[in-house]
Design brief:
179 residues; alpha+beta
Length: 179
């Protein structure tokens, strides 16, 4: 299985917790990845904050939760909005593929034999690009994601998966790098 290529925007790391925000590179649609090594509560708090803000701004998105919850892929998805405005090419609409988390993750659901036998990698990439947000919108989502780290709960983590008690205030003074 081929792994995504990431560019890392933020790493909050110390002995107690490691929280990372990445952007996937060289993929037809924009993807933001949240990862945490040992505190699922911190990951859930950050991802839910970003998702709530995106929902309030009427920005559709999909989530794929992987690695036993330690990695979350966030796919901003504007395919349906673009289709409703009539700005998607007819040949893409004719495929009847409305990309959501399954398709954006690389598993295209092909509905007809003819399409199955004739669809190309380039067409799949075109479909996924139609779901993607513009660079400006992506930057706003990434900034929101980075801001969530500052808003994590400032109390001992109740996460049953953590091996030690910690709080974000304790972590801010430790090793913290921004790539």
């Amino acid at each position: 299985m081929e792994r995504f290529t990431y560019v890392t925007f933020f790493i909050l790391s110390c002995v107690l917790v490691c929280f990372q925000v990445h952007r996937v590179l060289n993929y037809p649609t924009e993807v933001i990845v949240f990862e945490v090594a040992n505190c699922l509560e911190a990951l859930a708090a950050a991802v839910s904050r970003v998702c709530q803000t995106m929902a309030a701004a009427n920005l559709p998105h999909n989530l794929l939760i992987a690695d036993r919850g330690h990695r979350v892929f966030l796919y901003p998805n504007v395919f349906s909005q673009r289709a409703a405005r009539g700005i998607i090419d007819e040949d893409i609409l004719d495929t009847q593929i409305g990309p959501a988390v399954f398709e954006i993750s690389g598993h295209m659901l092909i509905k007809t034999r003819d399409l199955y036998e004739n669809i190309s990698h380039q067409m799949c990439c075109r479909i996924l690009r139609e779901a993607s947000v513009c660079e400006t919108m992506l930057e706003g989502i990434i900034n929101l994601a980075l801001d969530t780290v500052d808003e994590l709960p400032h109390h001992p983590c109740p996460c049953r998966f953590c091996s030690t008690k910690h709080c974000v205030d304790d972590l801010v003074g430790h090793e913290m790098t921004k790539d």
